[in-house]
Amino acid sequence: MRRHFTFACAGEHLAGTIDDAPGAIGLLIVSGGNDIRAGAFAGQAQLAAAIARSGFPVMRFDRRGIGDSSGENTGYGASGPDIGAALAALRAQSPALSRIVAFGNCDAATALAYTRGMGCDGLVLANPWTFADTAAEDALPPPSAIRARYLAKLRDPQEWARLLRGGVNLGKLARGLKGATRPGAKTNPIAEQIAQGLAAFDGDVRFLLAGRDRTAQAFAASWAKDDPRLSVLEDADHAFSSDLARQWLTHAILAALHEQARQLDMG
Predict the structure, then answer these.
(1) For residue 56, which of 87, 84, 18, 85 has the smallest C-alpha distance?
(2) Closest among 73, 78, 20 to 49, alpha carbons compared
(3) Are residues 217 and 127 in contact, defined by beta-carbon separation less than 8 angstroms?
(4) Which domains does the chain show, CATH number per domain?
(5) pTM of the model
(6) Residues near 98 by Cβ (< 8 Å), separated by ≥ 6?
(7) What is the pLDDT of residues 170-198, one digit of tens each?
(8) What is the pLDDT of residue 179?
(9) What are 236-252's pLDDT values in tens digits?
(10) Residues 148, 149, 155, 158: what is their CA dihedral angle, to the nearest 10 degrees?
(11) Which segments of 66-188 does DSSP mark as H helices, in order?
(12) CA 251 to CA 48: how far, in whole Å?
């Protein structure tokens, strides 16, 4: 059963939704960007329903100034109070909960890291945002991602045929090759802040990266490649919109929830 309600945050009213389930472990979904709680193509609503069917209550909400919530949208960097208020509301709405896992995609993942998990027991962070400039659509992917993309094209006979037919924009190709050879940044300040925030968090952390997403590619270029917390689905877009990607995302979040249940059983 899905319930709609509102809760307070810094003098404003935030809109929330809970998909009820009897479990002692709950999931808080934090919206990324300026998405409303339904998420891209209602993906969050579908995800919440699937997780609840597995026995875990799920809450979604709109932060201040987004969707049905009042107030001013001040961006992900100032969303700590919203996340904290949502966690308190989830506990109030589902008092039987013992542990909470938070899931965020894009800048919601970064916000959860910045706020050191806000008292959650586990974090599932998908495609964390590491662009300093908010105009990510105009930003080039990291050189390593561009090189990987062009290497894949060179191995594809159809791409060679498209080039010979004149189906390739040569100007765009030149810009891409130039981007592939530019020196990469030695450090990324947002990635460093993510690392600092997570260093102060002692719960379970999992990173989920979509292989075809430039936000994920930028994060991967600035993060340790051997981090065992990283999982990548190569043929996934930013919103995990394909059937395979949705299933992969759901299973990964369920694994994090089951881990909390295991820890709770162990006392």
Answers:
(1) 18
(2) 20
(3) no
(4) 2-136+187-266 (3.40.50.1820), 143-181 (no CATH)
(5) 0.83
(6) 24, 25, 264
(7) 566 555 555 555 555 568 999 999 999 99
(8) 53
(9) 999 999 999 999 999 99
(10) 180
(11) 80-93, 107-114, 143-154, 157-164, 170-181
(12) 12
CA distance 108 to 125: 8
- E-strand stretches of the chain: 2-9, 12-19, 25-30, 58-61, 99-105, 122-126, 204-210, 230-233
Contact status, residue 141 vs residue 218, Cβ threshold 8 Å: yes
CB burial class (10 A; 0-12, 13-18, 19+) of residue 91? middle
Number of neighbouring beta carbons within 10 Å of residue 62: 25
- How does DSSP classify residue 133? S
Residue 239 tokens, joined: 């919103």
Q: How far apart are the two ends of the chain, measured CA to CA in Å?
A: 30
